[in-house]
Every structure is written in C-alpha cells, then in structure tokens.
Specification:
This is Transcriptional regulator, GntR-family. One of its GO terms (molecular function) is DNA binding. InterPro entries: Bact_HTH_transcr_reg (IPR050679), Chorismate_lyase_/UTRA_dom_sf (IPR028978), Tscrpt_reg_HTH_GntR (IPR000524), UTRA (IPR011663), WH-like_DNA-bd_sf (IPR036388), WH_DNA-bd_sf (IPR036390). By secondary structure, this protein is of the alpha+beta class. 26% of the residues lie in helices and 31% in strands. It is globular, with a radius of gyration of 20 Å.
Length: 255
C-alpha cells in the first residue's frame, strides 16, 4: 500500500485501490472483490474499506452502490467538484503523474475579463501565469491564471515547473478558501491546438474559476481548457448537501 504509513488506513486503502485501477490490475468493467474479501485481504474491519470505496466513487473511478457491487468505470478520469483540490492533488489521487510546463509568469495590467472577475479597477497590475498541465506526460490542460498582485508576487520566488501553485501559496499562508466554477465547451484556438498537440478546433472543456479567501475577497481568476478525452468533471449531490449548480443560458444560445 501507500508509503505514507502515518496516513489514515482508509486513505492508504484508497490509494492502493486506485493504483490497482490505473495499473490495470482492476481493468475497466472489473467487479471489485466484496467488502468481506477486502477485509480479509487487508486484515481490517468494514469501516475503512467502505470509506476507501466511497472515495473511489466520489472520484468517478468506480460505479455501484445501494446493493450493486462496485465496478471499475469505463470512462476517462473524472475530476470531482465535491472537494476543492488542485490539479496536482487530483492527478495524484487518481494514480497519475502530474506535470507542468510554464510558458509565462508576468506582471501586467489585468485583462477586462480578469479585472471584472476579481473586482479590480481596469488597468490594475496583476500577475498572470500560463502553463500546460500533463497527466503521465500527455498534455491535458492549459492553465491561464490571473492573481491579484499581493498573492501573485509570491510566485516570483517559486519554481512553477516544480509542482502545485496552490500548495505553495497555502504554505505561504494564502487563504485559498473557496471557488466558483463555470464550465462550458469551446473550440481550440491556434494557441490551444499547438500547446495541447491537437488539431485547431478540437472541442475543449473550459473551466472558469474565481477563488476567494475566507472573507470573500477574490484572489485568483483562471480559465483552464481541458482535453475531454483525458478528463471530465463530476458533481456529487446528496439530500443533506446539494451542490449549488447554476445552468447559465449564454447570450445568443438556443433555449
């Protein structure tokens, strides 16, 4: 199992189960062993096993529940919005190796869209980041991010090719508390196509995100473009806690 021996058992179990899926030991369509079999294999009670299986369901790695045995999903990796994770944390959670190539970290005037999203006066200086993100060395996403200056200036002391920007900023005490995500579809531009090594016009999933501090101050605006063949998104609702979904009718679209 995981080398993180201090991690809770259900976390180590979920990592082991995810490893079996990504390594092909549990291929798409494979019916997982019963809870009783897993309890015997790992010498534990049903509680940690059920927690680990629940994590796999939340990440879209397996299907099943309510009497149906869990089965490895026949789909691309899914990024869950039930938790607030960075791309790096998500990639590691599904057993993939995350990577990034930084094309730019620059101080400049905010674009009109970023200024509006961040509540800034037009012309305010911000820090912009352009990176390509990878899953197992394959281009998966383009990250175009704008930070308010007080947050973004910290990135000039960070190697943005080394890992998660969010993890670094959290270590610096930045309060990345919550985010609002808006998802739609766009066609790959010339630049998108080149960076993702795809034909121009390839359909992409666009995620626009505004990240706020605990007191509601906008800190980051990002427009990320994903290859849908490599990732999709899930949102989990329960009777007790429903995700705040908003379906937006864009101007000029047909109802």
């Amino acid at each position: 199992m995981s080398t993180q021996q201090n991690a809770p058992l259900h976390v180590r179990l979920s990592e082991e189960f995810m490893r079996r899926i990504t390594d092909g030991d549990w291929p798409p369509g494979f019916q997982l062993p019963s809870e009783a079999e897993l309890c015997r294999e790992f010498g534990t009670s049903r509680g940690p096993i059920r927690q680990a299986l629940a994590f796999l369901r939340s990440e879209g790695a397996v299907t099943g529940g309510r009497g149906r045995p869990p089965m490895v999903r026949r789909s691309v990796p899914s990024q869950s919005f039930s938790t607030f994770n960075s791309f790096t944390e998500w990639a590691i959670g599904i057993g993939k190796t995350p990577g990034q190539r930084t094309l730019e970290v620059a101080r400049r005037e905010a674009s009109p869209e970023a200024a509006e999203a961040l509540g800034l006066v037009p012309g305010t200086t911000v820090v912009e980041v352009l990176r390509v993100r990878y899953l197992d060395e394959a281009p998966a996403m383009i990250e175009r991010t704008t930070f308010i200056l007080d947050v973004g200036r910290k990135l000039f002391d960070f190697d943005t090719d080394s890992g998660s920007i969010f993890a670094f900023l959290k270590e610096q005490g930045v309060d990345l508390h919550s985010a609002r995500h808006t998802i739609d579809a766009v066609a790959a531009s010339d630049e998108d196509a080149e960076l993702l090594e795809q034909p121009e016009g390839t359909p992409l999933l666009r995620e626009r995100r505004i990240t706020r501090s605990g007191d509601g101050q906008p800190l980051e605006y990002s427009e990320d473009r994903y290859l849908p063949a490599l990732t999709n998104f899930t949102i989990d609702n329960t009777v007790e806690r429903r995700a705040a979904l908003v379906r937006i009718h864009t101007e000029g679209a047909t109802p």
